Amino acid sequence: VVGSGFDDRIGCFEIVEIIKNVKKFKGTLYAVFTVAEEIGLVGVRGATFGVNPDVMIALDTTIAGDFPGITAGEVVPRIGKGPVIGIKDAVSVINKKVRIWLEETAKNNKIPLQYDVIDRGATDASVAAMIREGIPSGTVLTPTRYVHTSVEVVDMNDVKNVIKLVSYAINSSHKYF
Predict the structure, then answer these.
(1) Is 37 noted as a catalytic residue in this protein?
(2) Is 37:141 a contact under the CB 8 Å cutoff?
(3) What is the pLDDT of residue 129?
(4) Residue 115 burial by CB count (10 A; 0-12/13-18/19+): exposed, middle or buried?
(5) Which residue among 83, 95, 104, 169 is buried most deeply as judged by most CB within 10 Å?
(6) Could you report the per-residue pLDDT of 98-124, keeping only the tens digit for each?
(7) CATH for the 2-175 domain, from 3.40.630.10, 3.10.20.70, 1.10.1900.20, 3.90.1150.200
């Protein structure tokens, strides 16, 4: 699919679909749409502090490295190869328990996974890791070609797999948290 503003309209779509899919979860689920992530992670600060969740998964996009001019290994995620777990960004490293939870959920449900290390910028999960005692958090990313342009490209199979991964993870969260 080609369009503009996928960073992060795709995440908004994924959240709405995840809410529809979460049926077994017995706790309280908060879905938060934040603002100003690109200019300082502004929106998530108040939302995370106010909600104080037991665990947080941020949804975002990441740069896909499958276009001309990118050398092998420079940018790892590929479109059509599944959701991406953000291992670290410029501010924080994924919580180990959250990483294991997401990996086991993907493995148990045959969802392909990719990994990314973001050396510039951060996601909303970074802020959660620094609120109060540190909220266990991680980021699930949708690989996107030509991020921040008018012709962003995502593979809807990746979007569907992000929705599946996070939905299944929420439904199994009682085993991990």
Answers:
(1) yes
(2) no
(3) 66
(4) middle
(5) 83
(6) 999 999 999 999 999 999 988 776 676
(7) 3.40.630.10
